[in-house]
Design goal:
Elements: H1 2-10, E1 34-38, H2 43-48, H3 55-66, E2 75-78, H4 96-113, E3 117-121, H5 123-132, H6 140-143, E4 148-150, E5 153-158, H7 161-164, H8 168-188
Bound molecules: uracil (URA) and iron/sulfur cluster.
């Protein structure tokens, strides 16, 4: 896992390496039962080299503590490991090519960790997971909060925390979905 993180920090497989300050390999216990997958680093993450440390990270932290789950117990990663920047210097979604270039790293992380539960945050991560496990593409609006069996794991798609940032209804919906996660953990005897 540490060697993989080093390879990611040095990676130049796609053009995103040019503008990055730091790649963000992801972090968490290597035997974590839960793996959260975001989209890609934003400004704060690019600066610190750690996932979900900006505004979206605060939302995620709040949702985790809301169900009594310590952040240190889960693995948090992203579909792409370097920050996608738009022409005006803001954050953007990764392109399909960038996802294709980078997702083998995430594949490998999932193989090494073998989490019981995979929580995808937002569209990009959910699309990646559906494709990886041979499931039909579907919209996050329909899928969120529903547990799907994928191989030895359970996939639980969620909205992206940054989408919920200024939308109270989405935030309420995310809290409900985290409630499902809490119930699932109890059912599986994880926590
Ligand atoms: N948004 C993401 O998708 N990932 C991060 O790490 C931070 C914000
Ligand atoms: Fe490599 Fe992924 Fe960064 Fe592209 S985004 S340079 S593939 S680590």
């Amino acid at each position: 896992m540490e060697r993989l993180a080093e390879a990611i920090r040095r990676c130049r497989k796609c053009p995103l390496h040019r503008a990055r300050n730091r790649a963000v390999p992801g972090e968490g216990p290597h035997d974590a039962a839960i793996f959260f997958i975001g989209e890609g680093p934003g400004r704060a993450e690019d600066r610190e080299g750690r996932p979900f440390v900006g505004r979206a990270g605060k939302v995620l932290d709040g949702l985790l503590s809301g169900i009594g789950l310590e952040r240190a117990r889960v693995f948090i990663g992203n579909v792409v490991k370097c920050r996608p920047i738009d022409a005006r210097g803001g954050d953007r979604r990764p392109t399909e090519e960038e996802v294709k270039a980078c997702s083998p790293y995430l594949d490998k992380q999932l193989e090494l960790i073998r989490p019981r539960i995979i929580c995808t945050l937002g569209d990009t991560a959910t699309r990646y997971a559906l494709k990886r496990y041979g499931l039909a593409p579907s919209r996050i609006r329909e899928l969120h909060g529903r547990a799907l069996r994928v191989g030895d794991s359970i996939l639980l798609p969620m909205f992206h925390p940054s989408a919920a940032l200024y939308r109270a209804r989405l935030m309420a919906s995310m809290r409900e979905d985290f409630g499902r996660l809490r119930a699932l953990l109890s059912d599986l005897g994880i926590a």
